[in-house]
Write a structure and sequence with these properties.
The protein is of the alpha/beta class. The protein is built from eleven helices and twelve strands. The strands form three sheets. It has a five-stranded mixed beta sheet, with helices on both faces.
């Protein structure tokens, strides 16, 4: 990642510096000069401007090195605050997220199926409480994001929705509907892609620049990170992983037919167990055994085939697994996926690293907020985001 000393690309250079500090946690001017290829004077001007704007905070001066003591700079969590709203097939989630990705406030509400009217009612009931919980005023919010499944009206029968009510979403402009209710500029993103943004922008560990991200919710989706940026595709559908074909697995030929919570619900109900626990994931899913173990294994087998197919097209260095389930389920899924993948013949394709996501059930809401940070303050290689 190199910058330019031309004044006309000052915004791009500021993005580059913020991006690098976000990735490294903190940087000195000397370190930024080496990383970017910019002149020391250009870096000094950018650092000073970002500090003046409240984007950066000074750390403790570093002594004991050759030369003058240097001062590392880090991101200011209070620089910008954003709200993320997830409109899910089974529930709403709303978060208030700071510039470093910490969730300052969170509220949730299950429902049978989403409608625009229910979304408005949820915001009227919860938004003021969310702001009060975080201790911030409405005008302190820099922008809001909405994470919503693409073509929400599809598969309505799989989660008990009335088709005529779901058809309302076909031509509905949810951003226009919620303008004036949600504060600031509103961005709308596919829910699984939003979860990928959460991981890339705010994740607890630094995702590799070429990564494949899976999010298992009511159905399954994901995202693609290429060359150090989330790639959305020409229609915004990159990472729509549910239709990937899965061989030799009874129950369907698509990934969504196996690795999704709707499938787990069906398996539980066939064994006389309720699937209501999946609406608001508890800390412990032990009561769902032994069906749970069967589903995790089935999902891991299917995910392994999906990883091979995707890796044959793009050389992914890392595969990240997350979903609307407790962390221990995510860990089991990742371990089993790695084990199953090692048993498959990849035909010369290097085995990717298997990692766990950072946010679980709230990843989609956090990612709706992360879109603002990504678009405004990080490097963007995807022309669809310009």
């Amino acid at each position: 990642m190199k910058g330019s000393n031309q004044l006309t690309v000052r915004d791009s250079n500021q993005r580059l510096v913020l991006h690098l500090i976000r990735r490294h946690g903190a940087m000195t001017k000397a370190e930024a000069t080496r990383e970017t290829g910019l002149s020391p004077n250009a870096i000094s001007v950018i650092f000073n401007a970002l500090e003046h704007e409240g984007m950066l905070l000074r750390g403790e001066r570093m002594r004991g090195r050759i030369g003058q003591p240097s001062t590392p700079m880090r991101l200011n969590p209070d620089a910008r605050l954003h709200i993320g709203l997830k409109i899910g097939r089974r529930g709403f989630d709303m978060v208030l997220v700071d510039f470093c990705g910490s969730v300052r406030a969170h509220c949730t509400q299950p429902h049978d199926y989403p409608t625009p009217e229910r979304t408005i009612a949820f915001l009227h009931a919860k938004l003021d409480d969310l702001l009060e919980q975080a201790g911030v005023a409405r005008d302190a919010i820099a922008g809001s994001g909405i994470a919503i499944p693409s073509q929400l009206w599809h598969w309505s029968g799989d989660f008990g929705a009335l088709q005529d009510e779901m058809d309302v979403w076909r031509d509905h402009d949810i951003a226009a509907t919620l303008t004036g209710i949600l504060p600031g500029r509103i961005l709308v993103e596919n829910d699984a892609t939003a979860a990928c943004y959460a991981e890339w922008v705010f994740g607890a560990r630094q995702a590799r620049p070429d990564s494949l991200y899976f999010f298992i919710g009511t159905f399954i989706g994901g995202g693609v990170v290429l060359d150090g940026a989330v790639y959305r595709g020409c229609r915004g559908n990159a990472g729509a992983l549910g239709p990937l074909r899965i061989p030799d697995e009874p129950g369907g030929t698509r990934l969504v037919d196996h690795a999704s919570l709707s499938v787990l619900r069906q398996m539980l109900e066939r064994h006389g167990k309720t699937g209501e626990a999946l609406l608001s994931p508890p800390v412990d899913w032990a009561a769902l055994e032994p069906v749970l173990s069967d589903w995790i294994l089935r999902s891991a087998r299917s995910l392994a085939h999906a990883v091979v197919s995707a890796s044959a097209v793009i050389d992914f260095e890392e595969v990240i697994i997350d979903g609307a389930f407790p962390p221990e389920i995510r860990a089991r899924m990742a371990r089993l996926l790695e084990s199953r993948l090692n048993k498959l013949d990849l035909g010369g394709i290097p085995y990717p690293v298997i990692s766990q996501g950072s946010f679980g059930d709230i990843a989609r809401a956090v990612g709706a907020a992360a879109r603002h940070v990504n678009d405004r303050d990080m490097l963007r290689h995807d022309p669809t985001t310009l």
